[in-house]
Amino acid sequence: MRLKKQRTKRDVLGFRLPMLTHEEPELDITDITVMDPDNTFFMRMGSEAMRSYNILPDNILVIDRSLRPVAGSIVVFYHEEAFFTREYCPQPGRLMLKADNTADTITIEQTETWTCWGVVMLTLNPVLPAQLRTGRYANVCAC
């Protein structure tokens, strides 16, 4: 077994290299995407209803269930035994949940029941070309 002799620290004369004096904080994707771990969920977008919002089929939605929607929020909601992702647009006496086209827009009257499942905080959009999705990269964003 060889032991390495530790060098003694020398004082640096002159200018220090900027890279030695500047430390970047570690980048952790969960610090950016998960504000509340108990209320953060991931879902896959299942339709083209939100294409103009740059939410494409198979994009991953990061949803926070602790947030309350405000006008203009993108929400995931449960209505008539199905989940939908739409823009939250409250109006007097009813709620409009807008999509790209009017056929996919849902209007909920005050007498109807619906559940806001959560507010979409961000989406994860895959950019890896199909030719590179092989081997261990086959399931990158699984889109």
Keywords:
single chain; 143 residues; mainly beta; Umud Fragment, subunit A; seven-stranded antiparallel β-sheet; 2 helices; 31% strand; elongated; Peptidase_S24_S26A/B/C; Peptidase S24/S26A/S26B/S26C domain-containing protein; LexA/Signal_pep-like_sf; LexA-like
Number of helices: 2
CATH class: Mainly Beta
Q: Write the H/E string, N to C.
A: HHEEEEEEE
> Under CATH, the topology is which?
Umud Fragment, subunit A
State the low-pLDDT regions, or none: none
Q: Radius of gyration over alpha carbons?
A: 24 Å
Content of β-strand: 25-35%
* Chain oligomer state: single chain
Percent of residues in helices comes to under 10%
- Order of neighbouring strands in the sheet with most strands: 1-2-7-3-4-5-6
Q: Provide the number of structural domains.
A: 1
Number of strands: 7
Principal-axes shape call: elongated
Averaged pLDDT, please?
A: 85
Largest beta-sheet details: 7 strands, antiparallel
Query: CATH superfamily, please?
Result: Umud Fragment, subunit A
| CA distance, first residue to last residue | 51 Å
The CATH architecture term is Ribbon
Task: Describe the model.
This protein is mainly beta. The chain has a single domain, classed as Umud Fragment, subunit A, CATH 2.10.109. Helix content is 6%, strand content 31%. It contains two helices and seven strands; from the N terminus they run H-H-E-E-E-E-E-E-E. It has helices spanning 18-21, 29-33; strands at 40-44, 60-64, 74-79, 82-91, 94-98, 106-109, 115-124. It has a seven-stranded antiparallel beta sheet, with no helix packed on it. The longest helix is centred in the first third of the chain and has 5 residues, at 29-33. The protein starts with 17 loop residues before the first helix and ends in a 19-residue tail after the last strand. The model has no long low-confidence stretch (mean pLDDT 85). Residues 22-121 form the Peptidase S24/S26A/S26B/S26C domain.
